[in-house]
Design brief:
Layout (H helix, E strand, L loop, with lengths): L10 H14 L18 E2 L1 H17 L1 H7 L7 H15 L2 E2 L3
Parallel strand pairs: 1-2
Helix pairs in contact: 1-2, 2-3, 2-4
């Protein structure tokens, strides 16, 4: 099976995934995004997740092209963008560290 790299996504999803990796200190070039559970291979704290959620909400809100690429209904509404960030994290966020 051929590895699916980060470069195979749209430019804004690439940026989002790179930031997600940056928050936990992981090189996104080492992740096979083609694996069905790629997001289960690393962990983060609740604080790191919250930091990323704030960043992602602002990124979507402030970037019209990102909204068009990521959202089904790309309107510039802060609550809508925050909900989209929450849904992204629910589906693709790293698992929590066990402390």
């Amino acid at each position: 099976m051929v590895m699916k790299t980060i470069n195979e996504f749209g430019v804004h999803l690439q940026q989002i995934l790179r930031q997600m990796c940056y928050v936990i200190g992981v090189d996104p070039e080492t992740i096979d995004f083609g694996q069905h559970d790629w997001y289960m291979q690393h962990t983060w704290t609740q604080e790191q997740e919250q930091e990323f959620k704030i960043w992602l909400t602002d990124y979507i809100y402030n970037n019209n092209e990102a909204r068009k690429e990521i959202l089904e209904f790309p309107r510039k509404d802060k609550k809508h963008c925050e909900k989209a960030a929450s849904e992204f994290l629910f589906n693709y966020g790293w698992k929590y560290e066990i402390t």
